[in-house]
């Protein structure tokens, strides 16, 4: 069915969007490293203190990376390594990477733009890898280019499921050049190759695509993020069984060449619904035809002319009242015809009742649709602030606002990563849901705006989208309440959880970008400092920047921590928030 195929194509596009978003997120994750002064100095002087302090096993495990390369401006690696997650130690570079580590391919020379990025999928003998290379330009972000910072992550089955499960998708990914492709993948590859053979500049998909020659592309955006050419159907739909249907599409590599074949499985509920509807329609048509055919034959058979006038008058007297009946005593053909007419009138009366019931059902359906609309509005308000949601519903446009002073809070569950490895997924998600739901209630109580959660991290802001002067105190009270609330949650070793919380105040830009999967987010140096307050803090404590301390010191109790080295900012004076002062 066309509807089923269209739905499957939409699902395949959703899967592609997941990979594109994963590429963008991976690129964005390492921007701080490319703009970090310490990394900028390291690619020039090769000081091994940088390696011992920063390129530690925890970085590879937490960030789930399998490759890290720091190269100077001439393309010579200053530091390069793979990583064995099973043994928790460094390993040789993955096969196939070394020949691409050259200026003009994955590495950048001194003439490269400071904002250049090479990100996307690279096919390696050990499997596809999501890779990002960015020029090392220092904290100013303007250069000069001193070298290249490169990180990579294998797209293992576990990584693919990490993308698919939150979206509720059933994904399977195979290399186009895999000689052992299952039958359905081979057929889909052939169909996609036929589709790609149209008379244009693109080469058809190979039966067994070799690793392509890479042309120098230092300044190109990740080609895996590019949309397919308009007018070209890049998805092949094939039924797998009576209950499942699959959509196949191609994911391109960093050089814009076909690399991976993605399959998305869908349940064939639309087909089953269509078949049931068709059978019901045929049955109803047959029954209605039989009823009306029988009545017609009965009328013709029982027609009696000499009593027709009386029958006509009584039928005329009935008018539009289906509850009235024809009175024709006797035991002849016309009497039986009268009975048939009365039966038809009863059927009409029953039909009128059915129409009334159908009308009532339509009213109920309309009310249900209105309730669904209300639920969708509530869901939108759970994602975006009310004022932002209203703007998006009225018209699509770029939404961005500057706020001169807001207070931002970042919180992270101390020691959660090793603990999470001991939980099964259901227990882990249930724990985070209960914990973050309690934080959401606190944010609502204090009039704050939750921005997002990332893993076990929680971000909330005070003072937007509607400005209020009490934003810093509201954030401070919420931080104290969060620290108290999280102690009610106990880990599997019997110890209560602890939060590492950071708070900073300053100007930000807030808004919504993109056309799909809207997210209200913040940008600005104040956000980065708040994040550093959390990451450089200690478990069970609330670290506050000097800007926030200046707004809070009259109402709250602090301990001065002193100068703390903050990545990208240098030494900053910070304070520990202890509690709220008791009114005199």
Low-confidence stretches: 199-231
Number of strands: 18
Mean pLDDT: 83
Question: Number of helical runs?
Answer: 16
Shape: elongated
Characterize the largest beta sheet: strand count, sense, and whether it forms a barrel: 8 strands, mixed
How much helix, percentage-wise, in residues? 40-55%
Q: Give Rg in angstroms.
A: 34 Å
Strand content: 15-25%
Terminal residue distance: 75 Å
- Category from helices, strands and their pairing: alpha+beta
Q: What can you see in these coordinates?
A:
This protein has helices at 2-29, 31-34, 37-45, 48-54, 57-63, 157-167, 183-196, 269-302, 308-318, 333-383, 386-394, 416-420, 425-445, 471-486, 525-535, 546-552; strands spanning 67-72, 77-84, 89-91, 118-124, 127-136, 147-154, 170-175, 235-239, 244-252, 258-267, 399-413, 449-454, 457-462, 499-512, 520-523, 542-545, 556-566, 570-580. The chain contains 16 helices and 18 strands. By secondary structure, the protein is an alpha+beta fold. The radius of gyration is 34 Å and the shape is elongated.
